[in-house]
Structure prediction request, 164 residues.
Amino acid sequence: MSQADPHAKTIGEHEFVMYMLPPMQSHDLLMDVIQMIGPGLGPVFDALGSKAKDKALSDLLNEDLTSDFFTKAAETLFSGLRKDVLEKAIKALRQVTQIDGKSLDSTFDLHFLGRLDLMYQWLIWGFKVQWGKAFGALLGGIGQQGAVGIPRSGKSQSPSTSTG
Prediction:
């Protein structure tokens, strides 16, 4: 499946089809989402401690972690959620989504009235559709480096530019 192909998923009793956002709109929104959840990821990976030192994110997710870890991780991530970023994401994603062959944008309120659980399932699925590969690329090195391009020691891996 290419990036231009639509993605389909059944949520509740309805078939959703989502198309990709235009590249620059997707990039802009992804940067907002990363700024929103990024600060919460540091403590999550720090909580993993030595387990994260030499492992990729996908390997860490297969570890036998305690429920306490997941509780603390969820609290950290949810504390950073921003209403404006979520509204911007929802607005963008509903414009590129169809539900049962109709535009979700025109039926959004009616469809999700009293069903926020389904709306959140759709939103999380939308994040995976739009940025699943990008998140994987951005977060893939965190287990080895702490933050993208920054080793856990906090020092940059960039070569020195001094001519000293």
